[in-house]
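INTERNAL AUDIT FORM
Audit reference: QA-55
Scope: verify that the stored structure record matches its stored sequence.
Auditor: D.O.
Record contents follow.
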Amino acid sequence: MKALIIDDERLARKELAGLLEGYDGIQIVGEAANADEAEERIAELQPDLLFLDINMPGRDGFQLLESLERTPLVIF
């Protein structure tokens, strides 16, 4: 399963990526620091799963989801 980590805190993204390394069924295909960057990465990488932060500067996680044509699985 291809996953994308979206969080405005770099250390939180790195920690989550480290925790997920032990799961063979999850491949981290990228990261994004905000909703605008995430929208580009989602279109480019077509992930199956988003690890999504709700509170981010600018658009929040819910606003990002509303803007997507195809919504992958989401874990907040």
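Auditor finding: record pair retrieved intact. The chain has a mean pLDDT of 97.
Action required: none
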